[in-house]
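Dear Dr. L.,

I hope this message finds you well. Following up on our conversation about the binding site, I have prepared a predicted three-dimensional model of the protein together with cytidine-5'-diphosphate. For your records, I am including the exact sequence and ligand specification that went into the calculation, followed by the structure tokens. Please feel free to forward this to your student if that is useful.
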Amino acid sequence: MEAPPLTIAIDGPAASGKSTVGERLAKALGYLFFDTGVMYRAVTWVALQRLGSVEDEAAVTRLAEVVQIDVQPPSQNDGRQADVWVDGDDVTWAIRRPEVDQWVSRVAAYPGVRQAMTQQQRRIGLRGKVVMIGRDITTVVLPEAEAKIYLDASVEERARRRYLERKARGEEVNYEEILESLRQRDYLDSTREVAPLRVAPDAIVVNTDGLSVDEVVQKILAQIN
Ligand code: CDP
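The resulting structure of the complex is given below.
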């Protein structure tokens, strides 16, 4: 068998399975798993906390430039993939709240915020042995990645997955609301001017509708080896 690619970049719309599949791939290869979405979520959370809203682009950008976001291996066995710390506070679950879902795509469209996040992500990616997931990893953050995957699924299937995920965490959930929120985020993420979500010309597109996590992981491993 050939050596696996050193950097694996995975993009795709919200809830397409990137984090579950990415984590499994990283484990299988002994690589670092890095979910870049948590960084945009962390900035959004801090902005809501400290500024009360995300409206002021200049203020949010300044925050993104100075805030210390730290992603560490999970310290607790409560279903988290990683610890996410912001200036010393554990925000791992806070950044999954609906108000963050509601505002994160707005924050992620601010060019200054993207610049601050992209620099940090690129530095980590260039060390190699990493599976990095997001919206612009294959196109902007690590265009030189040896393996590029675009994970997709229908919006209904993605809403169903997110619904089950939240329900399993004991949250109150409404399928229609989740569906609407995903549609809105898809729209904002793919129409923004800087680093929109799109399929890189050399990416392998994997549609995960009706496939189990195992099947998706096997499919990707078969493609990249
Ligand atoms: O987990 P889910 O698919 O719901 O979203 P996420 O990966 O945590 O990303 C949350 C939001 O951050 C996305 O909707 C994008 O607006 C933004 N994002 C981005 O712009 N670029 C990335 N590389 C990762 C996330």
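In brief: Residues 48 and 54 are 6 Å apart (CA to CA).

With kind regards,
A. P.
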